[in-house]
Amino acid sequence: MTHDMARNDLLAFEAAQPVNFWRADPHLQQILRHWVGATPFASWEHHLDAFGAETAGPIDAAVRRNNLGHNLPREERWSPYGERMEEVEHHPSFHLAGRGIYAGGVIPAVAKRGNNAKALALFYLSSHVGEAGHNCPLACTAGLIKALREIGSTELQDRYMPRLTSTDYATLAHGGQFLTEVQGGSDVGANTVRAVPTGAANMWELHGEKWFCSNVTADLILVTARPDDAPSGTKGLGLFLMPRRLPDGSLNSYSIRRLKDKIGTRTLPTAELDLNGAMAHQVGPLDSGFRNMMTYVINTSRVFNAVGCAGMAHRACLVGQGYAAHRRSFGAPILHYPLVQETLADMQSETRAMVSGIFYLVHVLDRIERGEANAIEQHFWRVGINLNKTRNAISSHEVILSALELLGGNGTIETFSVVPRLLRDNVVFENWEGSHNTLLMQVLRDCQVKKMHQSFFQHLLQQAQGHARLTEVLITTRDDFDVAIKGDQALATLNMRFFGSRMAWLQWAAAMHQDGTERRTVDHFLNRRFAETAPHDLDYLQRVKELVMASNST
Ligand SMILES: Cc1cc2nc3c(=O)[nH]c(=O)nc-3n(C[C@H](O)[C@H](O)[C@H](O)COP(=O)(O)OP(=O)(O)OC[C@H]3O[C@@H](n4cnc5c(N)ncnc54)[C@H](O)[C@@H]3O)c2cc1C
User: Fold this and answer.
1) Domain 175-286 grouped into CATH 2.40.110.20
2) Across-strand partners of 181?
3) 3-class SS at 252?
4) Residue pLDDT, tens place only, 431-479
5) Ligand 1: which residues within 6 Å by Cβ?
6) Ligand 1 centroid vs 177 CA: distance in angstroms?
7) Is the pTM of this model over 0.85?
8) What is the position in ligand 1's atom list of the atom closest to the CA of 268?
């Protein structure tokens, strides 16, 4: 094979990349049709199809450009005339991507109660281009909207909702959420930023330092802070809405220390910040600040985060599959080698499982928001989302890393494909909105104190009916988990990584069994995650080949 032939193969790979991420995902289409029903699905399809083309076309191109080292954001704290600006300067490609992403309509969709499936399907498509500098702000804005919708005063809703739900990039308002301080992100109860009453109704001044502030130039920011007479720990944290600009147009009293130089999500400006008496509105009762932040904001971010990881994993599958079909080695496309087929089969089944699992949880969330869910579903959701937040990020990491390996040396090159950036963005997703251990500890507490695992397994056993193997593994895992969490506490903690992964995988498998995912994908997934004990046989070789070749022809 000559140089030219090899180069032509690479060009053919690039040319064969999907031009529409929605059309490239019949599995997502199947899941949504199943859970939301044929009529709503039909009314959304055109919208998702159009956004699928935008994300795979102009948005992807703009994000790639924006991520080049010389196009990254930089802080512009002062104007040429010495006025305080606290601005971030972006390359034009950042705004090009932003216009397309906001026009996609995630935010107006999520603003409607019980409409998360549509919003998150759009967000999943948008996450095919990585975090892109705008997907984290979308998640923050969604959480802010839900908090204002559920606990904001009519005055705050009237003042801010119209701009928050707009899709006009030039005039819309977007959100941020600043909790983390240098002494701890997981340990939010250690927050020391002070809230001081101004004397005006529900108005406070915020003083202190925040350590991780993404989308630092957001128009509206939810901040946790502690009034001087409040108790220690999370109980003493109030929730405040800090506008970037005051009603007279002047800048609120905070200053950027510096932008952080991050491994991933590099076009999203994340800063360290000083609050110098910044004016902020109280949102909800003071003594429920942390609970409200968790319920409406962090839980929303966790769903967005888990869906985002699934979107990035699916993009990695598309790249890996396309490359394997075009790259020749030892005289044949690498797709024909059994080890490559197995890698692709694992990437695909893990990603489909993840997508089925998280979109089932989104469906349950819609039922909760519409007041249709029973107590079992509510507990199931709470355990499920914390497990998905942690497991989706780990599985997505594995899938993206497999894609990188499939691309060989080219996989490591930033300008060759989106894969290295997906990997770097994914590392940040693993940390955001709760690190793995924090999430697992939350699940353990919920199961030990409130016995939520009983609802979790009960719900899954109902879903697994008709699949004997899945039912059997569910029962064994339920019984083992029940014993583990009643024993030695340190050992119960240590075993959470083992049980957390298995419980998430079982939730995904049960969702696939329900939503019509083809049986061979469900079974491959279960076999790989629950029964790797002996060398493979010819049957396995054939099954892997069929799985991969079937997807390659769609
Ligand atoms: C790029 C980026 C942007 C971010 N943007 C924001 C933002 O906009 N707003 C915001 O509020 N925050 C933001 N964060 C902060 C993020 O939410 C925190 O980093 C995260 O919650 C972890 O907190 P930490 O960094 O203090 O780690 P720590 O809490 O110090 O944790 C360090 C390690 O110890 C482990 N650990 C901690 N406690 C326990 C325990 N009890 N048991 C077992 N293990 C434990 C953790 O799992 C972790 O592995 C951002 C982070 C990143 C990386």
Assistant:
1) yes
2) 184
3) coil
4) 998 999 999 999 999 999 999 999 999 999 999 999 999 999 999 999 9
5) 177-180, 184-187, 212-214, 262, 265, 270, 428, 431-432, 434-438, 441
6) 14
7) yes
8) 1
